[in-house]
Each structure stands twice: as C-alpha cells, then as structure tokens.
Description:
Layout: E1 2-5, H1 8-18, E2 28-31, H2 32-35, E3 41-44, H3 48-58, E4 66-69, E5 74-75, E6 78-79, H4 87-95, E7 101-103, H5 110-113, E8 123-125, H6 130-142, E9 147-149, H7 156-172
Parallel strand pairs: 1-2, 3-4, 4-7, 8-9
Antiparallel strand pairs: 5-6
Helix pairs in contact: 3-4
Bound molecules: NADP nicotinamide-adenine-dinucleotide phosphate (NAP).
Amino acid sequence: MIIGSRDAQKAQNVVAELKPKMRAGELVGMTNQEAVKQGEFVVIAVPYEGQAQMIEDLKGQLAGKIVIDTVVPLQKGKPFVPPAGSALLEAQTILGDEAPVIGALHNISAVDLGDVDSHLGDVLVCGDNETAKQKVMEVIRRIGARTFDAGPAANAYVIEGLTGVIIHLNKKHKSKHGSIRITGIGD
Ligand SMILES: NC(=O)c1ccc[n+]([C@@H]2O[C@H](COP(=O)([O-])OP(=O)(O)OC[C@H]3O[C@@H](n4cnc5c(N)ncnc54)[C@H](OP(=O)(O)O)[C@@H]3O)[C@@H](O)[C@H]2O)c1
C-alpha cells in the first residue's frame, strides 16, 4: 500500500507512524504524483476544497485505475451539495472517461479505519461503472466491512451527506465511532 502526500517527507512520516500498527503487508510513502503511478486503486481522501485541484493535477495519470472517492463536501462541519451534484460527480466530470470514480467509505470514521481491532460499520458503495464498483466492494470486504451496492453515481450526494448526520451524532454522543448499519438485507 502507498500513502500519497503533497510532500514526500510527510508521507514517509505517516508511514513510520502506521507501520508498527500493521499486521501484514508493505507500506511506503511518496508524493501523490508518484503514488498514482502504481497500483490499481487510487483513494482520494482530501478535504472537498482540495479535491478538484488534486484530480486536475493527477489527470492524465489515472488511465486504467479505479478511483475510490471518500470525499464529503462539508462547510464548518455541515454537509452541502456542490454544483456538480456531489463530490463524486465533480471528480468524474473532471476525469471524464479516463477512470471510473467509485464512492465508498464516507460513513466510516478515520479512527475506526486506523484501528485493526475496531468493528467497522457498513459501507455503501456507488458509481456508474459496475465492474469497478464490484472490485471496490471486494477490496473493502477484505478490511472487514460489509459492503452494499448503493446504486449509481447519482446516489452519491445522499451517502456523502449522511456523513453530516453522523458527525452530528458523534458530537451529541461524544463518540468518534458513529457509522451506519443496514438491516433486513443480507443478514
Ligand atoms: N476523517 C474522517 O473520519 C472521515 C470519514 C469519512 C469521510 N471523510 C472524508 O475524507 C476526506 C479526508 O478526510 P480527513 O479527515 O482525512 O481530512 P484531513 O485530515 O483534513 O486531510 C487529509 C489530507 O488531505 C491532504 N490535503 C489537505 N488539504 C488539501 C488540499 N487543499 N489539496 C490537496 N490535499 C490536501 C493533506 O495531506 P498532505 O498535506 O499530506 O498532502 C491531509 O493530511 C474528507 O473529504 C472527509 O470529509 C473523513
């Protein structure tokens, strides 16, 4: 696995922090530009304000990759729907046919993702490329979460916005672990 950053040294510092917590696999750190040259999946996990520029900068290097978009449009912790309809649709518009963008992991807290012992909530996965969506679901299942095909890219604004509700619940209940669970399906 590769951690990308705008600053290679920062990526390497994060790797040094994470490595002792890992049970298996390799982890290396490098710039975003270098990181996207390798691997099949590219995870976009930056604040919404930085997403468009970041994808513009990486455009041309993402052909043949699957982009996993975790970005939630937030303003002062509150969700909003951006002009493109969602962060995912904005990313896909910038990339065009170069690479499919699949939305996932919006409703899982970074604290839980960083703890190999935590029980992860369910992950709603959406996007318009069915093959890419199935591959992303398979990858996320490997980290121990149940995944659900949550439909087309047009559904992304709902899943992104739901994170705003989870942030509210976390604040109200002084938690860092709020997530969602789908019941009545696949139980
Ligand atoms: N945190 C959560 O629990 C959680 C849960 C669900 C979804 N999300 C979503 O996931 C995304 C990342 O969340 P986060 O909490 O990890 O955010 P964050 O800590 O604020 O940012 C993550 C990284 O993005 C890079 N970054 C910051 N501003 C940038 C910019 N303008 N352009 C390009 N890169 C930039 C920085 O890395 P470098 O300085 O190393 O480049 C930073 O360490 C957000 O869209 C958030 O809404 C977060």
